[in-house]
């Protein structure tokens, strides 16, 4: 993937601990949506795409996830492209 201008940073709400940084979008992120089991994250962006992220892999595949520079490859599942801005995303 090309260098990303926008990051998604995931933190543990109660402790404030940084869990992961997801890069890959190239413009504003308008919406985030978690799957019902909290294993998959959708992100909708003004760059004309939705991205699907497998956030479960963060625990199993990366012993040092905080220093990992290639989170795109690690967490990224697929792109869903649209010819214009994408303002929302959801699971059905």
SSE order: EEEEEHHE
Low-confidence stretches: 59-68
- Inertia-based shape: globular
The helix content is: under 10%
Helix run count: 2
Number of strands: 6
Class from helix and strand fractions:
mainly beta
Strands of the widest sheet, in order across it, are 3-4-5-6
The major pleated sheet works out as:
4 strands, antiparallel
How much β-strand is present in the residues? 35-45%
Number of domains: 1
Cα distance spanning the termini: 28 Å
Task: Give the rounded overall mean pLDDT.
Answer: 79
Radius of gyration: 13 Å
Which short descriptors sum up this protein?
92 residues; two-stranded antiparallel ribbon; four-stranded antiparallel beta sheet; globular; 41% strand; mainly beta
Structural account:
This protein is mostly beta strands. The protein has one domain (6-81). 10% of the residues lie in helices and 41% in strands. It is built from 2 helices and 6 strands. It has helices at 57-60, 71-75, and strands at residues 6-11, 18-25, 29-34, 40-45, 49-54, 76-81. The strands form 2 sheets. It has a 4-stranded antiparallel β-sheet. The protein is globular. The N and C termini lie far apart (28 Å).
Compact description:
This protein has helices at 57-60, 71-75; strands spanning 6-11, 18-25, 29-34, 40-45, 49-54, 76-81.
What's the helix and strand layout?
Elements: E1 6-11, E2 18-25, E3 29-34, E4 40-45, E5 49-54, H1 57-60, H2 71-75, E6 76-81
Antiparallel strand pairs: 1-2, 3-4, 4-5, 5-6
């Amino acid at each position: 993937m090309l260098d990303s201008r926008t990051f998604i940073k995931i933190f543990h709400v109660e402790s404030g601990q940084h869990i992961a940084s997801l890069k890959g979008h190239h413009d504003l992120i308008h919406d985030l949506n978690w799957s019902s089991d909290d294993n998959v994250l959708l992100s909708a962006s003004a760059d004309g795409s939705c991205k699907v992220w497998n956030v479960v892999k963060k625990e199993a595949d990366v012993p040092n996830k905080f220093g990992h520079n290639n989170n795109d490859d690690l967490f990224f599942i697929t792109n869903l492209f649209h010819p214009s801005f994408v303002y929302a995303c959801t699971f059905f």
